[in-house]
C-alpha cells in the first residue's frame, strides 16, 4: 500500500525522525503534536488552553493538507503532564469537535521538552484516494 508523507506549508523541522503526518488508503495518521513553534521552542508557557489550541491548529493543518477536515477525525491520543490541566484541555478540545466526538484517550505523562503541557496524536479517515 503506497503512503504519502504530509507536511503542511511552513512546518518546522521535526525534533526526531518522523513526519507530521502520513496518509495511506484514505487514513491520515498525525504524529504526536506538541506546542512548538517552527524552531521547536515551546509556546504559551504555563497556559494549557493556549497550548492545546496551538496543537489542534497544527493537527488541523496536517489534516487539511491531506485533503480532510477536523470532522474526519476518528481517534485522538491525548497526553498531559498534569491532571490539573485536564479541564482546560477539554474546554478547548470541545471547540474543535463540537458535533459527534471522535474516540480518544488521555494519559498523564512526561513530555519531550520541559514546558510542554499537552501532546495530541490523531487519526482521521478522509476516504479512499
From TrEMBL:
Enzyme class: hydrolase
GO cellular component: cytosol
Reaction equation(s) it catalyzes: (Z)-3-aminoacrylate + H2O + H(+) = 3-oxopropanoate + NH4(+)
Keyword Hydrolase: yes
Record bears the keyword Hydrolase: yes
MF terms (GO), sorted A to Z: deaminase activity
Pfam families: Ribonuc_L-PSP
InterPro entries: RutC, RutC-like_sf, YjgF/YER057c/UK114
Enzyme Commission number, as recorded: 3.5.-.-
GO BP: any one term: nitrogen utilization
Keyword terms: Hydrolase
Its biological purpose: Involved in pyrimidine catabolism. Catalyzes the deamination of 3-aminoacrylate to malonic semialdehyde, a reaction that can also occur spontaneously. RutC may facilitate the reaction and modulate the metabolic fitness, rather than catalyzing essential functions.
Family: Belongs to the RutC family.
Annotated protein name in UniProt: 3-aminoacrylate deaminase RutC
Organism: Ketogulonicigenium robustum
Encoding gene, per UniProt annotation: rutC
Amino acid at each position: 500500500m503506497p503512503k504519502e508523507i504530509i507536511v503542511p506549508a511552513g512546518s518546522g523541522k521535526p525534533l526526531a525522525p518522523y513526519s507530521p503526518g502520513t496518509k495511506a488508503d484514505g487514513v491520515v495518521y498525525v504524529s504526536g503534536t506538541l506546542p512548538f513553534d517552527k524552531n521547536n521552542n515551546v509556546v504559551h508557557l504555563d497556559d494549557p488552553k493556549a497550548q492545546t489550541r496551538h496543537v489542534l491548529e497544527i493537527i488541523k493543518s496536517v489534516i487539511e493538507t491531506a485533503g480532510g477536515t477536523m470532522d474526519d477525525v476518528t481517534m485522538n491520543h491525548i497526553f498531559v503532564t498534569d491532571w490539573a490541566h485536564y479541564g482546560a484541555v477539554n474546554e478547548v478540545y470541545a471547540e474543535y469537535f463540537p458535533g459527534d466526538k471522535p474516540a480518544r484517550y488521555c494519559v498523564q505523562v512526561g513530555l519531550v521538552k520541559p514546558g510542554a503541557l499537552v501532546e495530541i496524536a490523531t487519526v482521521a479517515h478522509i476516504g479512499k484516494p
